[in-house]
Amino acid sequence: MIRTRFFARAGVSLVALGVAAAAQAQDAPDAAEVVVTGQRASQIKSIDAKRDAIGVVDVSASDDIGRLPDRNVAEVVEHLAGVGVTYDQGEGRYVAIRGVPSALNGYTFDGMQIGNTDGTTRALPLDIISGQLLARVEVAKVKTADMDGQGIGGNINLVTMTAFDFPKAFNVSGRFQAGYQELNKKVPIQGDLSVAARFGPDQQFGIVLGGSYSDRDFYSQGFYPDNWRPDARFARGGVPDNIKYTQYSLRRQRQGYTGSFDWKASDRQTFFVRGIYSKFTEDEIRPRYRLDFATAAIVNNAANGFVINPDGLTGSVNSGTQRREDLRLDYKSKWFSTGIVGGETDFDAVKLNYQGSYSHNELLDTFPIWQYRCNPGKVNFDFTDKVYSAAPVTECTANQLSFNSYTASRQVAKQDIWQGKIDGTYALGDRGFIKIGAKYQTTDQGFDASNPTWGVGSTAWSAGSAGVSAPGVCVYPNSNNTGQCYFNSPSLDPAASLAFTAANLNNPAFFKLNTATTLLNETLSDFSLNEKIYAGYAMANVKFGVVTITPGLRYEHTDTRVTGFALQNGTTVVPQSGRGSYDDFLPSLIVRIEPSSQTVFRLAYSRSVGRPEYASLNPGGSVDTINLAASFGNPNLKPYRADNLDATAEWYFAKGGLLSIGVFGKFIRNPIFTRTTVVTNYSYGGTVYPTFNLAQPFNADKGDIVGIEAQYQQLFTFLPGFWSGFGIQLTGTLTDSSLRLPSGRTSTFPYQSRYLYGAELFYQKGPVEASIAYHNTGKALLAVGDPAYNDQYNDDLRRLDAKASFGILKEVRIFFEAQNLTDEPTRQYQGGNTNWLIQNERYGRTFYAGVSAKF
């Protein structure tokens, strides 16, 4: 009934917009002339691309000097309607479209699949790619039959620049900026340079070369309790096991290069070669304070003296507590590269397009981890603030921090994708076209983890006796109280820890190799996978007056082979292999109605697939004895399959002006969810752990996502004088979802935010350009728990950014940017209760100043 009312109201809105738009379009005056430069050039190109598309497409286009806004591609598309972005350490990373998780998107480079760099997932971390390298980013929410079937949420297509995109034969543009970061007072830098040229007797050759580089050294300060459970004695209705906090020190570097070569050999023949390469590296130091003061074992043992005061917020525990100090040194490097060759041959009524591509992606992640423990005795706690406090009455000394374990983790992932595609398009004159094509894709995905683990040797030792301790550090994770210090003392010195370990790792007095745990950790995560996809399709695009109909049918056959390792009897590792294949017929029908040059209506049905994550198909899994968590795969998973319905109404009422509203529904079979279970007294590798988080993917029965999205953009060029430079852009998406789990209970769809909305006020007149942008990504389920109070959620994320630039010469501008002006943290919580905080991570504000030029 709720969804019936939802669609009914949405339908009324569509009809009302359509009637108003059609009526006003009949006698609408010509739009006022605008100066098509800078951000206005980007906005107008984006709107024109949306209007001309067959399906439902939103576009973020470069400005007149071939440059996209924001630091990376994830932040570029965040401003589009229906797009939600998950942030990591203050930067946008993964993109959800219309409430569908990022792993269910398609990712293409000039129309060819590009895979991923994270090794175990189909979600491409878009922070690896700089927005400065691209002409535009297209988000196709309704796909035609000539597009890959993967992508229930949609397809994100990265489009490179060509020399024929520029009005002049020779173009050079560049930019450099330096900044200031609030938390660590460091100076991040970023720069890019591109050259585009056309040459030859008839300028039939075109070449573009571009490069970008950024270097950012920064802090994030976080608060991370976990394992909340119901307890009516507490005012929050529950209590976590512990308090954890840390100050991460990170250095992120991103370098990228693009190139394209085009040859217009004749009026009937063109060839091209295009490529993109991007490398992302991250050095991270993670000293983590952890205090277990309220585990079930502590609370339920009367001898520990656990006391909750009548206010339900404060209390103490006399004994049984455990203090940990962990140090993780994480070096991560990701390579992303794709090359495409292709061409087009024109045989009058028939055009033949053909292209082949190769993608190679790699991940290298090394992270040694040291863990020390002590028993500090009495602990006082106070839950008055959401970012609560708990601390020993007497903190442990370095000599009391006893060595517990050392793990030298190393993960390597490699992916190779070969593709070939050929299309034939038969023109029907002014009536449209018929198109048929075929594609072959093969993917080899490999993942190898090495995690040798050492425990205490024959002689107990401490951080103090080894000389690896460091002075205490204040952590400030609370944006609402930036002076509130969470004191991590004693901490661990990275250089001293590395030196001591290197000198003594082979000394049995200090380190004892845990052979059972090492064997399991070095094999369970490893897998190799080959996936072949054979596809063929046919579609037509036929115009009947103001109505254009685009029917299509795509067929895909998927053949998958996976090899991994499984655990038998808790201790024995055995090889496992599996093979699966499935067929999908993917029909689509798009009706485009254009009653005037200013109004477009679209009605669409399409079917799409979402293949399981690579790691989810692994017969084995991974076990983390540091964070007490394990995940296992499920090679019997079925792919997601979705039937999608869309209806949109768009009114292009002026140049650079748009008012659109759309409704959509996705009805999904076999949705895959991760069920997380907290077990007690878990035995692994010969060790019994008091609590352990176990996660494994399963297919649910069905799920659905319905929503309505709207967009309004206008340049106020009709206003007099100064006011004519203003413009505004508003986006909003409301979604609702349902996921029926095997247990029988109903949940929302993972990563589906009920509310997504944004607003941008911009100004451009004379030498001045400026904008201020706000974006809200609403609460979203992250992982399904068992029982339900173990569900994990992202909280609302609100971003406020501003930028301004000033032309000092005809081709030179200076600019200023301010990011995260509200010092917004990223928050996660448990059990649907925003007071059950499991992450509050703060990044501070960042400011930039720079210069850009074009010639």
UniProtKB/TrEMBL annotation:
Record has Transmembrane as a keyword: yes
Domain of life of the organism encoding this protein: Bacteria
Domain TonB-dependent receptor-like beta-barrel, chain residue ranges per copy: 403-821
Transmembrane segments: none
Pfam families the UniProt entry points to: Plug, TonB_dep_Rec_b-barrel
Topology term for the membrane: Multi-pass membrane protein
Cellular localization per UniProt: Cell outer membrane
Entries under InterPro entries matching the protein: Beta-barrel_TonB, Beta-barrel_TonB_sf, Plug_dom, Plug_dom_sf, TonB-dep_rcpt-like, TonB_rcpt_bac
UniProt keyword annotations, A-Z: Cell outer membrane, Membrane, Receptor, Signal, TonB box, Transmembrane, Transmembrane beta strand, Transport
PANTHER family, alphabetized: PLUG DOMAIN-CONTAINING PROTEIN, TONB-DEPENDENT RECEPTOR-LIKE BETA-BARREL DOMAIN-CONTAINING PROTEIN
Name of the featured protein: TonB-dependent receptor
Annotated organism of origin: Sphingomonas immobilis
